[in-house]
Automatic annotation (TrEMBL):
It comes from Deinococcus cavernae. It catalyses: ATP + H2O + polyamine-[polyamine-binding protein]Side 1 = ADP + phosphate + polyamineSide 2 + [polyamine-binding protein]Side 1. The complex is composed of two ATP-binding proteins (PotA), two transmembrane proteins (PotB and PotC) and a solute-binding protein (PotD). Belongs to the ABC transporter superfamily. Spermidine/putrescine importer (TC 3.A.1.11.1) family. GO terms for molecular function: ABC-type polyamine transporter activity; ATP binding; ATP hydrolysis activity. The gene is potA. Keywords: ATP-binding, Cell membrane, Membrane, Nucleotide-binding, Translocase, Transport. Residues 1-236 form the ABC transporter domain. Part of the ABC transporter complex PotABCD involved in spermidine/putrescine import. Responsible for energy coupling to the transport system. Its EC number is 7.6.2.11. InterPro entries: AAA+_ATPase (IPR003593), ABC_SmlMolc_Importer (IPR050093), ABC_transporter-like_ATP-bd (IPR003439), ABC_transporter-like_CS (IPR017871), Mo/tungstate-bd_C_term_dom (IPR008995), P-loop_NTPase (IPR027417), PotA-like (IPR005893), Transp-assoc_OB_typ2 (IPR013611). NCBIfam families: potA. Gene3D superfamilies: 2.40.50.100, P-loop containing nucleotide triphosphate hydrolases (3.40.50.300). GO terms for cellular component: ATP-binding cassette (ABC) transporter complex. This is Spermidine/putrescine import ATP-binding protein PotA.
Length: 360
């Protein structure tokens, strides 16, 4: 499925057109779990609705299975949508809800029964067929909504924050189940979420959106390890940003002069001497030590605050007037690796973990 140069604007309260999607270009591969990730209002639902055919772009096109969908109404597209709000028929039983789409298509008798039952088994609601939606938990309702959407075997399944109404534990369980289901069905899933962890866990590839544009597109690991902008670095997890100027470029890396002194990075791509740059380093890549070593890339910091989160300690640090954050795995209570309030520490910034952002 492709999105070609899609532009969309809405009229604001004064009737002025306000762009919400700017020239979106995307190629979503067949059988891929693809996520649209971004903060509230960035345009991800609008893009999904354009794929579904519920909205028309001002310009540009959606192509599914090689066919231009311009002018093709929603119900004739080879897609189905699962919404956050389930949207089940309250007066129909679970089995009739699931069978609905097949009946519309004229499937009857044994085939209807077999296909409905098979899909219900797949999403583990095989024993709930006679219940009504109001007799189900939120997780069960979402399974019915899923069954109803996949029973028609669409080429593409569109999912608009389908797990966001569920509690954390159930959400985590369904994340795993959904990605297993996608693999088993081999169907293309396009999944909208504002939850970065959800996108990282489930997706083959993720498009990070910001203000109607795609900021970066790639595999989870690429986006996390090599963010291109401060927005991506901070939207996917958290990050320490350090500004500086390139002073030296060698074969295996570059030196950046910063407020903390010179820092080495193993990156060199696209850099020129004298260029101002922003470095990004993930909090878990900072190594906290009691004493300075001599290998460089170390800065002195003071522990300002400590947040205990169970698996790790999050240290808020002050270094040369800047706030930094470091995560350290929680070892045994009282172990040598624990640091106290106001303690002076040395922070080692591994050169391979210092990422040069393309845009500050
Ligand atoms: N029908 C509409 N008329 C006018 N403006 C709209 C309409 N639908 C959406 N918008 C605006 O378009 C922008 C993008 O909205 P959209 O729902 O696509 O964002 P989103 O990323 O899905 O956000 P959320 O996670 O909050 O659902 C927002 O500024 C929103 O206010």
């Amino acid at each position: 499925m492709s999105v070609v140069d899609v532009f969309k604007s809405y009229r604001d309260t004064h009737g002025q057109p306000t762009p919400v999607l700017h020239d979106i270009d995307l190629d979503i591969r067949r059988g891929e779990f693809f996520s649209l990730l971004g903060p509230s209002g960035c345009g991800k639902t609008t893009l999904l609705r354009i794929l579904a055919g519920f909205e028309q772009p001002d310009s540009g096109a959606v192509v599914i299975g090689g066919r231009d969908m311009t002018g093709v109404p929603a119900h004739q597209r080879p897609v189905n949508t699962v919404f956050q709000s389930y949207a089940l028929f309250p007066h129909l039983s679970v089995a009739d809800n699931v069978a609905f789409g097949l009946k519309q298509k004229g499937v009857r008798g044994q085939e209807l029964k077999t296909r409905t039952e098979r899909v219900m088994e797949t999403v583990q609601i095989g024993d709930l067929g006679n219940r009504k939606p109001d007799q189900l938990s939120g997780g069960q309702r979402q399974r019915v909504a899923l069954a109803r959407a996949i029973v028609n075997q669409p080429e593409v399944l569109l999912l608009d924050e389908p797990l966001s109404a569920l509690d954390l534990k159930l959400r985590k369980q369904l994340q795993v189940e959904l990605s297993n289901l996608q693999e088993q069905l081999g169907m293309t899933f396009v999944f909208v979420t504002h939850d970065q962890e959800e996108a990282l866990v489930m997706s083959d590839r993720i498009a990070v959106m910001n203000r109607g544009r795609i900021e970066q597109l790639g595999r989870a690991e690429e986006l996390y390890e090599r963010p291109r902008s401060a927005f991506v670095a901070n939207f996917l997890g958290s990050s320490n940003l350090i500004s500086g100027t390139v002073t030296d470029i060698q074969a295996g890396g570059a030196t950046i002069q910063t407020g903390f002194g010179p820092l080495r990075t193993t990156q060199t791509q696209g850099m020129t001497t004298g260029q101002p740059v922003t470095l990004s380093i993930r909090p878990e890549k900072l190594r906290m030590e009691r004493d300075m070593e001599t290998e460089g890339n170390e800065i002195r910091a003071r522990v300002d605050d400590i947040v205990y989160t169970g698996a790790e300690n999050q240290y808020l640090l002050e270094a040369n007037g800047q706030r930094l954050i470091a995560f350290q795995l929680n070892t045994d209570i009282g172990a040598d690796e624990d640091f106290g309030y106001d303690e002076e520490v040395a922070l080692y910034l591994p050169p391979a973990s210092l990422v040069v952002l393309e845009e500050g």
